[in-house]
Each structure stands twice: as C-alpha cells, then as structure tokens.
Amino acid sequence: MKKLVELSNEEAKNHFLKGSSYFNADIPKYISFEPILTDVAAVLNGGSYTAFKSANPNDFDDVNYNFLANKDGKFAWRPLELIHPAIYISLVNTICDPDNWLHIKKRFSEFEAGAVDCCSAPVMSLDTQKDVAKQISSWWQSVEQRSLIYSLEFSHILHTDVTDCYGSLYTHSISWALHGLEDRKKNKGKNPLLGDNIDSYIRAGRYGQTNGISQGSVLMDFVAEIVLGYVDEQINSELGEPTDFRILRYRDDYRIFANSDDWAEEILKVISDKLRSVGMKLGVLKTILNRNVVEGAIKPDKLAGIDLQDLRDANAKTIQKQLLRLHSFGQRFPNSGALRRLVSEFHDKISKQTERPDDLEVLVAIAADIGFVSPATFPAVAGILSHLISLASTEQKARLWIKVRKKMARVPYNGYLEIWLQRVTQPRAVGIQFTSNEPICRIVNGETPDLWENKWISSNDLKKALEVSKIVVGSVSDTEEVVQPEEVELFKENAWAY
C-alpha cells in the first residue's frame, strides 16, 4: 500500500485517469467512463480545456452531471456529481504537472506534524486488491485500533464530524491551503497560483459557485484532503504539541481524546473555529462525548452487528428468519456501516442457494423492504433479489420484479438506485424492458441524452470525444441474470471494515 502523495506525478496521473477514480462507487460492468476519459485526454494532450472553448463554462448550468443516491428512503440524499470530462482531465493535468505535484507533496508533508493525526491520506494498492479496500484497511488500522490503544492514556473520547463537508467547502480556501493565506493575499491580482487554477476549474463545472466541490471521485477526495490538511495545520498552530490529548481525523470525522470534559470541549471549539474559516461547520447531532474510551471507540451499530454476526444461524435456521433478523437490525440502524456489512455477507451466502424456497415471495418482500428503508444497501440487496427471483418460474419472475420496481419507485431522489434496478430487471433471462428518466439508464437503452453541457466547447474533436454512447461497453441484455458478489466489490470492500 502506498500513499497517493508518495507516487510520481505520472503515477498519480494514471491513477486519477482510471474509471474507478473518476467515479468511485459501484456501477454495472456494462458501464464505464474510461473510454471517454481516454479520448478527452488525447484531445487535450496534456493541456487545458481553455484552448477549446468558445464561451466561459461558468456561465452555463449543468456543465457537470448530477444524480442522487438516497440515504434514508425519504428525503435525505447524497448528491453524486460526474465532473465534466474536459474539466476533469484539465484538473488532472494541472495537479499532476511535475512542479505542481512537487509543491502539493511538500504541502502534505507540512500538514503532518502536530496535534491532529490524519488517518485518511488517500492510498492506492500495489497488488490486486482494490484501492478502496486499501483505504478502508487503512481506516481500520489507523483509527479504530488506535482509539482502543488510547484508552490506556485517556478517559474521554469526543466524536464529531463536519456537516455536508464537500457541499460546504469554500473553494477559495484551496489556494489558501496550497500557498498560505498571506501569500495568497500578496499575490491577489497577479498571475494565478496553482490553487487559484484548481479553484477556477472546480467552479467552471458548478456555475461559478464558490461553495462546494463535487462528490463521487478520488480526485475530489484528494482536493478535500488538501483543505482539511490546511485546517489541521491551523489547529496544530493553535493547540501546540499534544502532551495531554490526542486528535485523530479520518476525512471529516474527528476523535478527540482527553482526560476531562472541559479540555475535550475546548479542543472541540478550536476545531470548530478553524473549520468555519473554510466554510465548514460541525454537526451538533453527531457530536458525542463518552467517558469510556473503549466503549466510545466502536460505533454502536458495529457492536450490535458483531453480536448479530456471532449468532450466525443460531435461532434463525431458515432463510426467512435470517432475513427478518437483518430487517430488524436495519430498522434499528438504517443505512449503517454494520448493516451494509451484514447484507453483504448475506449476499455471499444466498448466492450459493440452489433450491427454490417455498416462501420465495415472502423472502423477496423482506429483502426489498431492507433496500427500501436503507437505500445505501441496494447494490447488495439487488444481488440478493436477483438470486432469489432467478429461482422462480418464468411467469413469476416478471411479476415479482414488477412489484419490486413499483416499490422502489416510491424512494425519492433515486437515480443511483435506478441504475441498479435496470441491471437486475433488463437481462434477457428476466426480459423486462426497463424505462427510466435517469439519463444513464436511457443511454444504456440506446438513447443519447446529454450528461454534460457542451455548448461552451468550440472544438468538434472534443465534442466527438465526449459522445455519451461510449460509456456503454457491454449489453445489459447479455448480462447474467444474477448479480454475483464480486460485481459489487466496492460495496463489499466498504462494508467489511465496519
């Protein structure tokens, strides 16, 4: 495992240009953004989109493509954003310029020393294990285990995190993070600095907004770490050496270790003040003080999940009882990391089932409701449903999938879920023609809706490189009826460490 900032600029560039870096969540295997990235990179030839524009993209809405993943089955959602490929490649070329990359690496090294111990520096694998898996492994080793060790020194642990971290980040703070606030002020009105260029590119895809960056790519995770590293530096300057406290940070999640309520809360105030300077604020409801570090180091849903996992098949020998137990857990801890892990494990288990259960429709109903209440579990739930319904008769398959489709259609803001519903209902073995207003689903069905606004582009070569039909690299009809566990690998790797 290697930290991203330990790579050469060319290695980093290759990493950012991977399809799984451009969009870092599971999508069906017949969809890939890599062909468009490759073609756009060839047209830009190491340069910027600015040489190919007829207008300023800041003046256009919907330059980036936005779709939503529902978080709670109701009205909470996570906005996912596919950065316009021409802007994305320009960002990669700028960040991975040899001199710029050297400067970024230097700044990361300056963020490291002090009170805040960052445990979320982006990593990549050096073997066949996926990069997300490596990131989660790093989290497990750096945060949870070290939290337990700190129980030997400290009596208090205070958890807190940032509300809407990516959506609230003030983009001008990227330049402050890379060059320092004073240097940035001195340079105002002169030639743009590296941070100014990154800021400008990000705002170009977001209607010129200075509040917020895109969610859904490794590149934006990296930019967020630059700004959060700068906040760490400010906290370090205020608090000095951590002689009687410790702070662990994983992305926008902070754990404060101390030996009194007053000291823990004083540290919390410093963190809050420094985050506010870059547009961020802490979530009041997720700020929790615990006076037992061992108990507070492990999330309640994980402790409950360990208990449930240890039961295995005890007292729940039938598939229905096991699903009901999962359903009950999901009611207590909806969309939790522990639920995602347990659903993933059940997906592995049910994929080996070969006989049609007598209570098949009941099982489908329970599994569908788990996904309805906790949409974050849906990639694995789709796998469970695909296997169960594959055991039904041809006539029953269509009837069951139509019922599932109607139920899941009641989940608002569900573009990501729609992509997975198409995956499980449209294979030839199922035979349902999936219709959806979600543009990515429409592209899979042979239509050509716009994903990104391209009216500001003057180059025909660049427009040709951006043709959306290229994202379809296989046939949904020819896809296997059953979603195998390895098809939702990123979901599994995110889930296993909880």
Helical stretch tally: 23
Any idea what the radius of gyration is?
24 Å
State the separation between the terminal residues, measured CA to CA: 20 Å
Structural class: alpha+beta
What strand line-up does the widest sheet have? 4-7-8-6-9
Largest sheet: 5 strands, mixed
Compute the average pLDDT: 90
Spans where pLDDT lies below 50 across 5 or more residues: none
Give the proportion of residues in helices: 40-55%
Number of strands: 9
Q: Into which percentage range does the β-strand content fall? A: 5-15%
Overall geometry = flat
Give the helices and strands, then pairings.
Elements: E1 2-3, H1 9-16, H2 19-22, H3 34-44, E2 65-70, E3 77-82, H4 85-95, H5 98-112, E4 116-118, E5 123-124, H6 131-149, E6 156-161, H7 165-168, H8 173-179, H9 181-187, H10 194-204, H11 218-239, E7 246-250, E8 253-258, H12 261-276, E9 288-290, H13 293-297, H14 300-311, H15 319-332, H16 337-350, H17 360-373, H18 378-390, H19 394-408, H20 415-425, H21 439-444, H22 460-465, H23 489-496
Helix pairs in contact: 3-4, 4-10, 5-11, 8-9, 8-10, 8-11, 11-12, 14-16, 15-16, 15-17, 16-18, 16-23, 17-18, 17-19, 18-20
